[in-house]
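Good morning N.,

You mentioned wanting to compare the apo and holo forms, so I went ahead and generated the holo version with FE3-S4 cluster. This is what I fed in:
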Amino acid sequence: MEKIYIETYGCQMNFADSEVIASILHGAGYGVSGSVEEADFILINTCAIRDNAEQRVRHRVRELRAMQTRRPGLRVGVLGCMAERLQSRLMAEEDNVSFVCGPDAYRRLPAMLADVRRGGKAADVELSTTETYADIEPVRLAGNGISAYISIMRGCQNYCSYCVVPYTRGRERSRDPQTIVDEARTLFGRGYREVTLLGQNVNSYCWQGADGVPTTFPELMDRVAAIDPRLRVRFATSHPKDLSDKLLEVMAAHDNICRCIHLPVQSGSDRMLKLMNRKYTVEWYLDRVASIRRHLPDCSITTDVIAGFCGETLEDHELTLELFRTVRYDYAFMFKYSQREGTYASRHMADDISEAEKTRRLNEIIALQGRIALENNREEVGRVYEVLVEGESHRSKERLFGRNSQNKVLVFDRGDAVAGTYRRVRVDDVTAATLLGTLV
Ligand code: SAH
Ligand code: SF4
Ligand code: F3S
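and this is what came out, ligand included:
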């Protein structure tokens, strides 16, 4: 039996896709290996969101060339967003790559691998308006048997001016809700206790049933949360323009929908938000934050932000810092703007903030957010949380770790706690990233 090895970069959706890819190739008779050394095919599932994500993949592809010299039968393929963006250009530039496959073409991988096996090269980067892989049961790769991703939609057509995703992932389409509920129920039956529903903008999830009756995201959440109160439900990502009170009401009605909302803001300046084509203002965003706090007082809020977008002035940057001070995020993913070929910004706006200045602004945001996260965490001391135990702490076998509903990591002495169960933990001490506690 020939073996494949999948290496995944990028967002959670790519990790979910790799599990679909493993399932498709397993079904075609390939073994799915956990080791590069015994693989006949190495599949690299890639990200194109920023230039450094692509550089990392190119570096890896070149590193694999040495292994291919030692083992001439070994074939390397590039999948995912970078494959979609660069298409066969990638095989010309990196000549040890034998196949490229875009995010909507994974069902054709068995045929592509067969071509490659006969010594050819293969490329399939066709995007689809309907593919959701709804009928494919993912092979859970390297999971902990406790939490799993479920992809509920694909694509994005928001066309934020800086973003490559609409070009690499195609039109937005939602997956049949029944297949989502069934997948979550099956996972629960196998002992899983947490599912994360994934989409680039889950709030615009909408399935048109055969009867013409639509299912929206709040309705889908309601159905998944009703499977069992012991199954935690998370979701990502929420676009602020579509975060509805209806969703917050559904969350409030189910204790097992986790109290954590990822609400990427990108900038605290209305002028930048307009140039970014985000379709909301700071006032709108703060109103959504206020609504979250009203409906779910214990909800954590996290974000994404971009430093140094085209034409960003010091005043715009200061407004971002101001917004961070106002919202006091529990966590933030912070990035320097990276110009992406083909996007509206790359065609119509100048990438005019120097690399050094982008770094300076980014570091300022990182330092501020670090202080805020630590201050937020200090307020946690003495609180008791229900924690889903996930496993041993990386630092010590004597300690376990898990997350609370707010998605904060708690580390505590193992006692008689067992992975995959819920335990109550009191917070004794904190860092900016972790809560340290004791079983109660
Ligand atoms: N769909 C999600 C984001 C997906 S991409 C949303 O709209 O919120 C994840 C994050 O990468 C984005 O939120 C943004 O902060 C960042 N990002 C996207 N394109 C970027 C670029 N060209 N340069 C730097 N960061 C970028
Ligand atoms: Fe990119 Fe905007 Fe779509 Fe998010 S919503 S994936 S940032 S285009
Ligand atoms: Fe990257 Fe594609 Fe996800 S560009 S962030 S892997 S959708």
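The mean pLDDT is 97.

Happy to go through it together on a call whenever suits you.

Best,
F.
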